[in-house]
Write a structure and sequence with these properties.
- This protein is α/β, with parallel strands linked by helices and 96 residues long.
- 39% of the residues lie in helices and 20% in strands.
- It contains four helices and five strands, in the order αβββαβαβα.
- The strands form two sheets. Strands 1-3-2 form a three-stranded mixed beta sheet, with helices on both faces. The protein has a two-stranded parallel sheet with strand order 4-5.
- α3 links the parallel β4 and β5.
- The radius of gyration is 13 Å and the shape is globular.
Amino acid sequence: AGAASRLHRELVAADLPAGLIVLVLEGQARSGVAEGRTGSVRVVHAIGEGDDAIVAEAQNWAGHRVAVVSADRGLLARVDAVGAGTRRPRWLLGRL
């Protein structure tokens, strides 16, 4: 929960090249940040598996420029299959 809260604060404060950032939280991390939108960051609480929620979000934004940040190769392959771009955490951390 604490790490989710810190990441959320950093995303809100960052000057990222994005119109909207969707932060998907699962499990205990959900208690760190309430669902909703703060500036350009929208928080989504995954009901079940976080990866499934991320893929669903990527599908919801089909036709828009989307990039999913994760170190999970399986997840990155799934979002690539629905047309989303992918980035590694190092890319995001370098911008925070």
